[in-house]
Write a structure and sequence with these properties.
With 420 residues, the chain is an alpha/beta fold. It has 2 domains: 141 residues, no CATH class; 273 residues, 3-Layer(aba) Sandwich (Rossmann fold). Helix content is 39%, strand content 18%. β2 and β3 form a beta hairpin. α3 packs parallel to α9. The longest helix has 62 residues.
């Protein structure tokens, strides 16, 4: 019995030693696989981060093109692909297989997305039957830099030279706006200003023939009648603007010296236009109001040079504004009844027409700012109603007030560009 017990013990020891050897081998294999998969995982993590960083940069480079409407979706997609290919260090990464990046442009949301599908071949993972790690990455950039389009509607009527220091004050205030908004610190194309001087009519300059169907002989135009009278419809066909010769005779008619200037970001050009303004004639404020709208309206874009074309109303990154400054009551119009009446309740009067235009502009989402410069109580009440709200109306009793009002508008628009 004793002998049999010893032999059984020895057999058990030998079996235990074999089990330990097997367990040791399995443990060593598991540890090796753990270390190997950790190495493959680190490769995957590093490669994934590099892919994402390159996609981010490509999306940003492409997204910036949304600022310029002349670029097509295909142009933006080509920029993203080119940027990714130029900056991805393909030679530095072995075992990575990837398709070409796919770029999606969503103009409604101002977004560009760049997506990539790839897989990374494993080194140690293949021992465990894991041949590759799949990798799908996407980068989306929302590029919504606010842009400002501002039309300055400036009264250059005869009363602005009673005394002439009034017109000098307007020029100085307008120049301050130009210097404030176009100070060289903003990206190109983000800040643009147009100028619409008005008196008894508006000088359409190089656009006179197109907007009047060739009827204007002095470069000036007056209001239009019919269904397009108080709209920003493009001036073509039956929507063309009238000229004095095809309207009821009006002894108040005169043609201002300085013409309109479409949207520009050229500081010297804008200042030169302002400097050329002279005072003369009656106050057809509705004509200045209409042209302030036309100069920021996308419906008129084809009339102007490419760099001066207003952006679409659907471009939510653009703030469209019209600033109207006058010193008196509107007293010149060309429709009957109401010709030359100063009563805004009289159909056809300048102030009646101007209020229709103000209301329709505001309904289109355009900000309307108004400044009454040494004006009557009646004129101030009208301009307050024309403005977007009371905060968009200013009363200026002197040159300092006028400059402060213009400066306030420029500052608020700049703040909106940053905050919205």
């Amino acid at each position: 019995m004793l002998y049999r017990g010893k032999r059984l013990f020895r057999n058990l020891v030998r079996d235990d030693q074999g089990t330990i050897a097997i367990l040791f081998g399995l443990t060593a294999f598991a540890m090796t696989m753990t270390v190997g998969l950790a190495i493959d995982g680190a490769r995957y993590y590093s490669t994934s981060n590099r892919v994402k960083a390159t996609l981010d940069a490509a999306a940003l480079a492409a997204g910036q093109m949304l600022d310029d409407e002349s670029y097509t979706d295909a142009d933006i997609q080509a920029r993203a692909a080119g940027y990714f290919n130029a900056h991805w260090p393909q030679a530095a990464q072995s075992g990575l297989a990837m398709a070409s990046p796919v770029t999606t442009v969503d103009r409604a949301k101002f977004e560009v997305s760049v997506a990539l599908n790839a897989n990374l071949q494993t080194t140690f993972g293949q021992i465990a039957g894991i041949n590759q790690f799949d990798m799908s990455r996407v980068s989306t950039v929302s590029y919504r830099t606010k842009k400002i389009e501002l039309a300055l509607v400036l009264d250059t009527t005869g009363s602005m030279c009673m005394p002439c220091s009034k017109l000098d004050a307007v020029k100085a205030a307008a120049n301050d706006v130009v210097d404030s908004m176009l100070d060289g610190t903003h990206p190109p194309g983000t800040m643009k200003i147009a100028i619409a001087p008005f008196a008894a009519s508006v000088n359409a300059g190089p656009y006179a023939s197109a907007v009047s169907g060739g009827s204007s002989t002095d470069g000036c135009v007056v209001e239009r009648s019919g269904g397009s009278a108080f709209t920003d419809d493009q001036a073509s066909g039956g929507a063309r603007l009238n000229v004095q010769s095809n309207m009821p005779a009006n002894s108040n008619y005169s043609c201002p010296n300085e013409s309109v200037l479409p949207l520009s970001e050229d500081n010297p050009t804008l200042k030169s236009q302002i400097a050329g303004m002279t005072a003369n004639g009656g106050t057809a404020g509705h004509l200045g109001t209409a042209w302030g709208w036309y100069l920021v309206s996308p419906n008129w874009a084809s009339m102007f040079p490419k760099a001066s074309r207003p952006r679409k109303y659907t471009d939510l990154s653009t703030i469209k504004s019209v600033l109207i400054m006058t010193d008196g009551e509107y007293n010149t119009s060309y429709l009957t009844p109401g010709q030359n009446s100063t009563d805004p309740a009289v159909t056809g009067s300048s102030s009646y027409q101007a209020m229709q235009l103000c209301n329709n502009m505001k309904a289109q989402g355009i900000q309307v700012w108004t400044v009454a410069f040494q004006s009557s109580t009646k004129s101030e009440a009208f301009l307050r109603n024309c403005a977007t709200d009371s905060a968009h109306f200013f009363s200026a009793a002197n040159e300092a007030d006028l400059k402060a009002a213009f400066h306030n508008v420029a500052n608020q628009l700049s703040a909106l560009r940053i905050s919205k």
